[in-house]
Amino acid sequence: MTSSSPSSSPTAVQERQRVRQSYPNFKVVVLNDDVNTFQQVVDCLVRYIPGMQADQAWELAHQIDSEGAAVVWCGPQEQAELYHQQLGAEGLTMAPLEPA
User: Is residue 74 part of a domain?
Assistant: First the structure.
């Protein structure tokens, strides 16, 4: 005996799964360059990344310098695009946005 209940149909199951999936997060990555000083990087991060404190920004600036790049923020795509644009407009060298 088969059930014809709409809640067990393949379409209903697909709809429920689609609703549960969250939007992907994106990484905002600043790259090392020979143009920006540590202070410029720190000032930009504190100015544009919500909740960024100066000590954390200094750690990220050192990571950018020593490793060539650092993820400075991760979250929803629309916000990531905004921070990416703002930091780039200030002259920081940015990696393309990528899913986290």
Answer: yes
